Amino acid sequence: MRTPRHDPFEQPFGPRGRRRRRGDFPDGAGMPHSGRPGPDGRDPREAFHGHRGRGRGGFGPGFGPGFGPGFGPGGPRGRRAGRGEIRAAILLLLAEQPMHGYQVITELAERTDGRWRPSPGAVYPALAQLQDEGLVEVSDDGGRRLASLTDAGRAYVEEHRGDLGTPWETVAGGRPAHLRDLRKGLHALGDAVEQVVRTGTAAQGEAAVEVLDRARREIYRVLAEDPADPDA
Fold first, then answer.
1. Could you tell me if 88 and 81 are in contact, meaning their C-beta atoms sit under 8 angstroms apart?
2. 224, CA 20 to 30 Å: which among 71, 124, 129, 150?
3. Where are the domains positioned within the chain?
4. 102-130 pLDDT per residue, tens
């Protein structure tokens, strides 16, 4: 994919400006890859993610769809979000901190494990509408458009917080919030494993497999514990 010569998200909010193709985001969403094979001569992305083949190569089938619903691109997607949910999500996110439009998109994707990644065509008109209502103000941030709540916007969120709910959980199918932390931990572990795949020696690879095996057994031990009796 060709890299855009400018960041299309620097343009003012609203329907005007160059239309972008689906998935044409300025920041790559994939895992960085140097183009060099790993110690075993394979593409490390294949070894880690398990895109091709099975067997003993790399670290097995990877942490993708095989990890169950929601832990990879094979997880079920939530239902389609309505305009009211996009509006509510933007207000709640901006109540936490000012954001660029692209940050709103990526933050919602992160909070829903990729199940809800609204398009710019949904987010930017919603931001423009909130700006017209006096709930959001837009300032220049190094050539980019930074959205934040006005005093009226903050008062609106506080007054209607119960009505706004948590739209990212609703759209994602009611996924408990704690699973986001679990998925982040899984990704952090995956990053460490990939470094071993890319640069580790055979001995380091064997040691990493032992660490993963211990972690697997510890997780099963946690599941076997009685949550009502943590000292058991």
1. no
2. 71
3. 40-77+175-232, 83-172
4. 999 999 988 887 888 899 999 999 999 99
56-115 pLDDT, tens digit each: 344 444 444 444 444 444 344 444 555 678 999 999 999 999 999 999 999 998 888 788
Q: Is 199's pLDDT higher than 50?
A: yes
- Phi and psi of 136, rounded to 5°? -130, 140
Q: Which of 100, 95, 97, 93 is nearest to 155 (CA)?
A: 95
Reported pTM: 0.46
Task: Characterize 135-170 residue by residue with b for buried, 16 or more Cβ atoms within 10 angstroms of its Cβ, and e for exposed.
Answer: bbbbeeeeeebebbbbeebeebbeeeeeebeebbbb
Q: What was the pLDDT predicted at 13?
A: 53
Q: What long-range pairs does 208-212 form, CB within 8 A, spacing at least 24?
A: 208/59, 209/59, 212/59
What span, in angstroms and rounded, lies between the C-alpha atoms of 62 and 186?
A: 11
At residue 209, the pLDDT reads 96
CATH 1.10.10.10 for domain 83-172: yes
Residue 35 CA, distance from chain mean position: 24
The first and second tokens of residue 121, run together, are 């065509």
Token pair 């829903």 in the structure block, residue: 112
For 176-192, how does the pLDDT look when each residue is reduced to its tens digit (9 = 90+)? 666 667 877 888 899 99
The token pair at 232 is 């058991």
Complete edge-to-edge strand list for the sheet that includes strand 99-100:
99-100, 144-149, 136-141
